[in-house]
Amino acid sequence: MKAFSYERIDDAAQAAARAFEVSGSKFIAGGTNLLDLMKHEIEMPAHLIDINGTGLDDIVATDDGGLRIGALVSNTALGADERIKRDYPVLSRALFAGASSQLRNKASTGGNLLQRTRCPYFYDTAMPCNKREPGAGCAALDEGADTRQLGVIGTSDHCIATHPSDMAVALRVLDAEVETVNPEGQTRRLTLDEFYQLPGDTPNVENALEPGEIITGVVLPAPVGGRQQYYKVRDRASYAFALVSVALIETDDGKGRVALGGVAPKPWRRDEADAELGNGAKAVMEKLLDGARPTDENAYKLTLAERTLAALLAKE
Amino acid sequence: MTSTTTFEKHRDSATTRSAVALSINGQRHELELDNRTTLLDTLREHLKLTGSKKGCDLGQCGACTVYINGERVNSCLTLAVMHQDDEITTIEGVGDVEHMDPMQQAFVDNDAFQCGYCTPGQICSAKATLDEIRAGIPSHVTQELNGPIEISDEEIRERMSGNLCRCGAYANILKAINQVANDQTARERS
Question: Which of A21, A260, B71, B130 is the most exposed place for a label (fewest CB within 10 A)?
Answer without folding.
Answer: A21
